[in-house]
């Protein structure tokens, strides 16, 4: 891997040292900084709880975002309320920041629904499982913003693996061609299941943008200040009619790909140790403490909040029951549809035949 | 004879095919060191090297499109699509290129490409991981479509699919991956076409009242129904080849039973069952005592996993359909 070409923007070192960068800076109030810390801690708590619930058989699957909290929270908190996020299945930090209730997310992984929230309400699309598909949707949405003369921006989330997908490369072409107000936010967590980044991209990911004709920037994805600073610049660029930016958030997938995966088959434990020292939460915590922005009682309070949310999630998930079987016929079409009605009746009749024989 | 899961049986079949022909290469996402998400290719990269078992970039169109070029160059690519719902980014290459290339080149080029796709539901998976898209491919001239029902069939037919000079879409019933069965690996030493014809349907349970046509994951379901059905005697026919369909074997069964039920997981409308029903109506019009009844998934997107038991045909629905055709 061409580690020597890593040029990640950094404002906060892994040791929690505030550093400056010639092109990027950010000024946040103390309460904003505490808010970012809270978001990351809570998101991690949701994540670990969900992993535990999957182990207990309460969820069918979970895709952990462990280690990617700064990339997700930093970018999502940079967005304005009317900007629109297009997440993948791992963006629990993004959906949290967009105000999607954690239980809505857990319902997907429990298998009681394949969808849920109204994207218009929180300006947040559905979790995309098909790699890369949502990136084109984001570009189209951005084109709509542009046609409407609005000042919103679409932010599309995807991984290093998605960089290989045709849809993503076509999205770059369309965005450049229309100078669409979109931010491409790629979390390079170094792995696409068992495949290292260089199987998808022979150059650093941010370098790919140049060939499509828009700027690419690499940011330390575990540094929430840098992620936020870089995202704000890209959002502003898009908002003022200057077109797309590709942001590569250089981070690491600390967990398994999903709870079905066994990463020991393809990666070395040493890698994990290296990245543990770059933990996104720990470095902000050190910074907040050293600067006197937050103290022990604040950290305890946030931890307590996380515990309460975890309990709420546990109870909520266990209480989730499957919907009525015939709900599978709902919302297949927006207009009346005879075949759907016929099959719904067939199912209900069939199910009631069991009722009769039992009762 | 050895007792193998279907995963291990396909793995053994791939191994035999690679030993037999150095032009056989495997290409797909995470199939190397990881051995595929279902471990079907486990150990093959270690034994055959990175040039014969290659991890692909994350792009299905890329995997299938480059396989066309590899085939033109004399290779025999065996591709893995990670899950049924992820074949669609490669659909254009399959339908417009893989399927038509031989014809377009007036027969001068063959496309001996095998596209392995784990398919079907029943494993409690998230969206896009439980689909049965076989009808799209069966509808496409130039493609053959095979699906094994048990480890022995899988061991043989994967090798036959690879040996075939036509492109074969090879659907692996993922919910049956861990079912065990006796596999005679020594058969691989023989001329495989003499062992069993992969393009023929198989009568897997004899009966006299109703013929039940099925394939892939539904074969076990229908066999269980045949065992459980005490009043009605079911004859179960595993179609195995979805394209071409072996209607001779099926028709000769229907001529004896006079009744046919077709079972598949895929949605009903425009499905393989519709084709079977139409063809059997033509062939067996004078023998049929009842219309052909289909037991299938509903015409809805595959539901959330906690509802899949209501979507998937099960033993009860198969028996109920048998009772229905008996009432005529
Ligand atoms: C079109 C498509 N092909 C294959 C898959 C199976 N799959 C799920 S996640 C994944 C790897 C994704 O890697 P990346 O884009 O880096 O995202 P990450 O998982 O690291 O968040 C693959 C191959 C899929 N979901 N969609
Ligand atoms: Mg990745």
Secondary structure layout plus pairing:
The complex is a heterodimer of chains A (359) and B (328).
Chain A: H1 30-55, H2 69-78, E1 84-86, H3 92-97, H4 102-110, H5 119-122, H6 133-148, E2 154-159, H7 166-178, E3 182-188, E4 191-192, E5 195-196, H8 208-212, E6 216-220, H9 224-239, E7 245-250, H10 269-276, H11 280-290, H12 296-319, H13 338-358
Parallel strand pairs in A: 1-2, 2-3, 3-7, 6-7
Antiparallel strand pairs in A: 4-5
Helix pairs in contact in A: 1-2, 1-11, 1-12, 2-9, 6-7
Chain B: E1 2-5, H1 6-20, E2 24-28, H2 44-48, E3 53-55, H3 60-72, E4 76-80, H4 91-98, H5 101-104, E5 114-119, H6 134-138, E6 144-146, H7 151-163, E7 168-173, E8 180-183, H8 192-195, E9 202-205, E10 210-214, H9 217-228, E11 234-238, E12 241-243, H10 247-257, E13 260-267, H11 272-283, E14 293-297, H12 308-311, H13 315-326
Parallel strand pairs in B: 2-3, 2-4, 4-5, 5-7, 6-7, 10-11, 10-13, 13-14
Antiparallel strand pairs in B: 1-8, 6-12, 9-11
Helix pairs in contact in B: 1-7, 3-4, 9-13, 10-11
The complex binds thiamine diphosphate (TPP) and magnesium ion (MG).
